[in-house]
Amino acid sequence: xxxxxxxxxxxxxxxxxxxxxxxxKDGKPIILFGGMNGGGKTTLLDAVQLAFYGPKxxxxxxxxxxxxxxxxxxxxxxxxxxxxxxxxxxxRRIMQGETRHFELQRYxxxxxxxxxxxxxxxxxxxxxxxxxxxxxxxxxxxxxxxxAHLFFFxxxxxxxxxxxxxAAEILGTAIHSLLGLDLVDRLETDLKLxxxxxxxxxxxxxxxxxxxxxxxxxxxxxxxxxxxxMAEGILVNETGRLAKEMRLKEDLFRAEGGELYLxxxxxxxxxxxxxxxxxxAEAQFRELVTGPLPLLQVEDLxxxxxxxxxxxxxxxxxxxxxxxxxxxxxxxxxxxKTENISGQSIRTVTRILAGDRLRRAGLAKENLIxxxxxxxxxxxxxxxxxxxxxxxxxxxxxxxxxxxxxxKIARLxxxxxxxxxxxxxxxxxxxxxxxxxAYRAKLAELEAIQVRKQALQRQRAAAEVRIDKLDERDMDxxxxxxxxxxxxxxxxxxRETLGRFRIRIVKRHVANMETLMLESFCKxxxxxxxxxxxxxxxxxxxxxxxxxxxxxxxxxxxxxxxKQLLATSLLWGLARASGRPMPTIIDTPLGRLDSSHRRxxxxxxxxxxxxxxxxxxxxEEIVGPYYKALRPFISKSYLLAHDESTGQTQIQEGYFEA
Length: 658
Known about the structure:
Blueprint: E1 2-11, E2 14-21, E3 30-35, H1 41-53, H2 67-73, E4 85-95, E5 98-111, E6 114-123, E7 126-127, H3 129-133, H4 135-142, E8 152-154, H5 155-163, H6 167-179, H7 181-201, H8 205-255, H9 258-262, H10 264-289, H11 299-338, H12 343-364, H13 376-418, H14 422-469, H15 472-479, H16 483-524, E9 531-536, E10 543-547, E11 552-553, H17 560-578, E12 584-587, H18 595-605, E13 613-617, H19 625-630, E14 634-643, E15 648-653
Parallel strand pairs: 3-13, 3-14, 8-12, 12-13
Antiparallel strand pairs: 1-2, 1-4, 4-5, 5-6, 6-7, 9-10, 10-11, 14-15
């Protein structure tokens, strides 16, 4: 399926007629919508689901309203209730090898009998009576409402799947719908009802009375389960709405500097610690400066002094050696004369020795400038080769440390300068506390109703067992020669077969789902070897991760961002496993992911999520570098411009300014 356009007329925040072309270009699957919080992003997602599913649509702000009351409330304020509101979806899908173009219109207005709703379906430009009259069956056959959340979802749903305790329930519902096992469940229920009717036909008055009483108890439980299920749905919607309101207040609190206000003492303490560290570092630096460090300024002069000292050592050695040589040369000549050596030879040796002394006499007569001890040159060499380089390295370290401390101090001083006063933040903090209290209270209600739901499930199972066993021996005796006995046996065998069939079907297909989910997770995750396997229990539908060491990896070990990526991967894997070429619509797609996890979704998920992806982003999500990274995959961009004075949102081409 490809969504070609959507037209909203007086729906929610969209006053008048607003239209957006949605057809993607080749290689550019993304249609990007930008809007501020409260500007109509979620309303756009609601519109698509409402058009497709009507009363079965999972709508964000329906709350406790009955369906027609919700329709009445969703007509744009200020519009003529008699004219009502309308959602038109134009899409195409392949049927029997041919592309068919559809126009789905859901229209409602305030009439004399209350809200009147009309659904019309055009196929290839012509009104199609069959699709119009049986649209609910048609869309359920093509894309069951039970798996719509695999393709149309928001950040809150991802958060619920990532952090809530209902992941197995959500996965189980989706897998059942994908495999068509809801039909098996209905057949099994019908068989149970058939068995009970047959058992009741041959009972005596007392047994019949007991059975009627037990069935009455079961009916009461069923009735209460329906009420609990309806209440749970309302509470889920209400909790989601309050969670969004709480996040809006948290965003406002942060924008007003609330987090800085709460951390002001921590920031002040950290600033004092940094200043103390800087004072200590400066004191150590000053101590270093009082040592040999200043000699770095005259390092060249120290080198020249070292050379002079070495030369003067040679001068002193030459002077001492000259006196020694004169005595030696005299003794040598005297010894030669006593030997039988010619006078010419003696004169030659005398001349050579005299020339050597003359050369040495020139060095020995040089003036001494320093006239220092002979150890001066080695000491200067040690100073220049070891002491000064070490002092320079220490000085560089101190300079870098003090500079880093200065930077941190400046940053903290800047943050502290932005800390609002208690009076300024009090009102915003009060609003936030009210929102949090309301959310926690509603969450507690939801948890309580879910506990009640589980208790009713256990009660119902026990009641069914009691009915099945009620006077079983009497029933068996009465049915011995009756065809009803044979029917009951066949029915029970059929139910047992259905039970085995259900588990085998899940086992047969769950491996493919596991593979697709794991592929999706590994594609999104930056830690390539964190997870090596993902498995789903075919009976409980609990997902289990295996780490690189071959051991179970508890979900608690994952970071918050990794849990959200895992939740996204589960939905993505199931959507791929469905084999249905459906568009994907994601509201508030990046939520509270950190920058690295956001980039993984931008680069690896959004361009590949489907052949058509509608992204509904705030001005703090797909912007800046994220928008630039996604731009090559964007076919169209729209800005949901909301006018506070009129309460009206218009769909305009373009996007947030860079």
